[in-house]
Amino acid sequence: MAHNDTFARRVRLDRLYRNGTGGLLVVPLDHPISGAPVIHSGRTGSLDRLVGELAANGADAVVLHKGALRHVAARRFRDLSLIVHLSAGTGLSTDPDAKVLVCGVTEALRLGADAVSVHVNAGAASEDRQLADLGAVAGECERWGVPLVAMVYARGPGIADGRAPRLVAHAAAIAAELGADLVKTSMPRAVADLEVLTAGCPIPMLAAGGDAADGPAALAHLADAMRAGAGGIAAGRLVFNAADPGAMLRRLAALVHDRALTRPLKGISQ
């Protein structure tokens, strides 16, 4: 990742990898714009309390939109990194796979970001604009020394299975080729496919977490991804929709930071 290895970028990456284990546990909380509520989930009662619970139970970073930061106390980020999400799109649109930029890199820096993230749906009708946005943000990140997380998925009218290994590899390649430091994507189910993908990707791959409704199966899949060489986990709904977000996060932290991958995933319930 020497393409933009500035001092500022190294400092910010160190903040992301604050646990020193080489793995990254991110909790995306950017869902309200797309239509999935966050702040009333679990037992937290507010976004600020939820972020505090995440900080106390092993998260390395959270992903938030700029307006959400008004509702989170600054002290929450003493032991937690902030990734400001620059993309948005709603499920109400005639093109639910569309994403547009709603924040810029310099604005994110003014908000205190340690990194930024951009969402791209490869295969969407608006794929060309989304790719252009990712490339432009990568250039700004290069200029300011800001780590970039690309959330890239194979999604669109012609995509039958976004987890197909060929499509996931393509999504990861898009992120790497356009200058991202990390890529979050949905991973294939088969362990053999996971190993090939992580070995062939030049940047760390963060396995998307899925929903709490998937229960133990989601955790088993994430454990497989970590065994196969994933660089970490990015789980939002799996955490904030859980009956006990803190307990769920501790289980994920064991996979990412303790590398407790050979232990059976017993006693996991929602």
From TrEMBL:
<protein>
    <submittedName>
        <fullName>2-amino-3,7-dideoxy-D-threo-hept-6-ulosonate synthase</fullName>
    </submittedName>
</protein>
<dbReference type="InterPro" id="IPR013785">
    <property type="entry name" value="Aldolase_TIM"/>
</dbReference>
<dbReference type="InterPro" id="IPR041720">
    <property type="entry name" value="FbaB-like"/>
</dbReference>
<dbReference type="InterPro" id="IPR002915">
    <property type="entry name" value="DeoC/FbaB/LacD_aldolase"/>
</dbReference>
<dbReference type="Pfam" id="PF01791">
    <property type="entry name" value="DeoC"/>
</dbReference>
<dbReference type="InterPro" id="IPR050456">
    <property type="entry name" value="DeoC/FbaB_aldolase"/>
</dbReference>
